[in-house]
């Protein structure tokens, strides 16, 4: 990267092929401080420590220019960064996506230096300096959540809210709902139905007899739990079925999710708290990782690589490169998909259980289970670290060394059940 350092008032990051970014930097020399990057990954690494006043980015860069803009738009630290998107052949779809991602203006190539200058002048006439404004991490929590939630809706390729779950919730909220009707709804998708029976008959629920009719399942578990099971089955189905290329270990991720789910359930039983919600809360806690991997594959690869290179915990690497974490993305997707509120909180705060004002016990259980699952090296959370156990969680459950050792022993045993559950899911 070259920086022309003649102290102009505003700084501009230009992301394009080397010869174009150099050419644009020359056009702007003497008026602005320019930095060039040849692809999106190089650019997010530069942004780790710097804040430009303006981003000029080519649509077809490696890493995808519009994806980059979507990522910037999601990131609370960069959501207000003005962007000029360059394109050789602008499509109407591209323009719509760019607009949704927060791009200020679209400039078709080739362009004259004066055209670019006019666009820049127009942007700077209406926006305050980024570099002089808030530093990263200074955005209030509520604003962060709102920004992520709003932008998440616009992200191309985000799996839609599971339709069957929506129908069941509708039935559950109506006066005429009956287990027959629920069964009727679910018969529409036999493979989904089969997955639900695998869940219901797994040791996670611990029913003595085999549950083989939906009517019985609804009677035993209740409508809400069935709706949640359907949602989980669909999350597995929708999110597990895509071609990731980031190096994120998806098989290891599912194993980690299932392992954490079983451990959350077993420690919840032992501590006699939140037993009904524990399994799903554990299962869904890292949902945001799959979304990031699926929608921002190249950028998530940079996160995974950074974890390896610097032995970082994935949450730190996400924060450093993407300015947002899997917990934030997962939590906001939970809102978007109308998950029960308790799951929103346990997803959003599973790495910082003291920060949540609500559902503290469930969130603490997931935190503890995630720690234990990683400690036993079951599956993969995306990096090789074992995040520290928050001391307040031990206080919350009055756990001393002995108590923790008992839970750890139970958790390790429970992983055998998790493994049989995983083989049941993958067979047939
Ligand atoms: Fe996590
Ligand atoms: Fe995790």
Please tell me about this protein's structure.
The protein has 428 residues and is an alpha/beta fold. It folds into 2 domains: 10-140, Rossmann fold, CATH 3.40.50; 163-426, Hypothetical protein af1432, CATH 1.10.3210. Helices cover 59% and strands 6% of the residues. It has 21 helices and 5 strands. It has helices spanning 18-28, 40-47, 65-74, 92-100, 113-126, 141-154, 163-173, 179-186, 190-201, 214-221, 223-239, 250-271, 275-284, 287-295, 297-310, 314-322, 326-336, 341-348, 360-375, 391-396, 401-426; strands at 10-15, 32-37, 54-58, 83-87, 105-108. The protein has a 5-stranded parallel β-sheet with strand order 2-1-3-4-5, with helices on both faces. Helix 12 crosses helix 21 (401-426). Residues 132-137 have low confidence and may be disordered. Bound molecules: fe (ii) ion (2 copies). One fe (ii) ion is lined by residues 256, 260, 285-286, 370, 381.
């Amino acid at each position: 990267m070259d920086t022309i350092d003649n102290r102009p008032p505003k700084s501009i990051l230009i992301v394009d092929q080397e010869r174009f970014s150099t050419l644009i930097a020359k056009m702007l020399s003497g008026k602005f401080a320019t930095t060039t990057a040849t692809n999106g990954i190089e650019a997010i690494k530069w942004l780790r420590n710097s804040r430009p006043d303006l981003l000029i980015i080519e649509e077809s860069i490696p890493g995808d220019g519009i994806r980059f803009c979507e990522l910037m738009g999601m990131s609370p630290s960069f959501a207000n960064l003005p962007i000029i998107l360059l394109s050789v052949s602008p499509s109407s779809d591209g323009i719509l996506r760019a607009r949704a991602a927060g791009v200020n203006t679209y400039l078709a190539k080739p362009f004259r230096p004066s055209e670019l200058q006019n666009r820049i002048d127009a942007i700077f006439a209406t926006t305050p300096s980024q570099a002089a404004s808030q530093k990263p991490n200074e955005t209030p929590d509520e604003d962060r959540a709102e920004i992520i939630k709003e932008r998440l809706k616009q992200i191309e390729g985000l799996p839609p809210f599971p339709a069957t779950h929506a129908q069941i919730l509708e039935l559950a909220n109506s006066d005429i709902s009956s287990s027959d009707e629920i069964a009727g709804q679910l018969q529409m998708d036999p493979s989904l139905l089969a997955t639900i029976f695998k869940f219901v008959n797994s040791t996670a629920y611990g029913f003595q007899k085999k549950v083989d009719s939906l009517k019985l399942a609804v009677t035993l578990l209740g409508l809400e739990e069935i709706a949640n099971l359907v949602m989980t089955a669909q999350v597995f189905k929708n999110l597990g079925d895509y071609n990731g290329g980031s190096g994120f270990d998806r098989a290891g991720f599912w194993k980690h999710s299932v392992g954490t789910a079983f451990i959350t359930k077993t420690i919840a039983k032992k501590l006699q708290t939140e037993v009904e919600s524990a399994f799903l809360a554990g299962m869904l806690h890292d949902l945001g990782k799959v979304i990031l991997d699926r929608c921002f594959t190249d950028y998530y690869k940079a996160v995974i690589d950074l974890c390896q290179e610097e032995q970082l915990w994935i949450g730190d690497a996400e924060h450093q490169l993407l300015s947002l974490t899997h917990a934030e993305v997962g939590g906001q997707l939970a809102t978007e998909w109308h998950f029960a509120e308790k799951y929103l909180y346990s997803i959003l705060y599973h790495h910082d259980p003291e920060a949540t004002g609500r559902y503290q016990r469930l969130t603490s259980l997931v935190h503890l289970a995630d720690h234990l699952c990683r400690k036993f090296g079951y599956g993969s959370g995306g990096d090789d670290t074992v995040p520290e156990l928050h001391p307040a969680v031990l206080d919350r459950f009055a756990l001393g060394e002995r108590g923790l050792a008992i839970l750890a022993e139970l958790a390790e045993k429970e992983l055998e059940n998790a493994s049989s559950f995983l083989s049941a899911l993958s067979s047939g």
